[in-house]
């Protein structure tokens, strides 16, 4: 959906009502402004970053056993031959 807005003399724009409603933007909310490939990107600032990032890239971890993954990483950093383990 491409909508047209006009920059006023104070370099401000009004966000169309349809966009505000769809993204739940209210007066006083903060937006993140980013320039990408010569375009302006406005994004609502997440109210809770941990909730916003929850589940990000979960498909990378499908079929991965967490304990085995951590153990492989540890073994790669510190091979068995150099690990000093206390007697059981």
Structure commentary:
- The chain has a two-stranded antiparallel sheet.
- Among the domains are: 17-45, no CATH class; 50-77, no CATH class.
- The protein has helices spanning 17-23, 49-53, 66-77; strands at residues 31-36, 39-44.
- Strand 1 and strand 2 form a beta hairpin.
- It starts with 16 loop residues before the first helix and ends in an 11-residue tail after the last helix.
- The protein is α+β, with helices and mostly antiparallel strands.
- The protein has three helices and two strands.
Features:
88 residues, alpha+beta, two-stranded antiparallel ribbon, 3 helices, 2 strands, 14% strand, elongated
Q: Major sheet: size, sense and barrel closure?
A: 2 strands, antiparallel
The counted number of beta strands is: 2
Task: Enumerate the strands of the largest sheet in spatial order, edge to edge or round the barrel.
Answer: 1-2
Q: Specify Rg, calculated over alpha carbons.
A: 24 Å
For the termini, the CA-CA separation is 65 Å
Tally of individual helices: 3
Instruction: Specify the overall morphology.
Output: elongated
Give the H and E element order.
HEEHH
Class by alpha and beta content: alpha+beta
Bin the helical content: 25-40%
The average pLDDT is: 85
Report the β-strand fraction as a percent range: 5-15%
Unreliably modeled segments: none
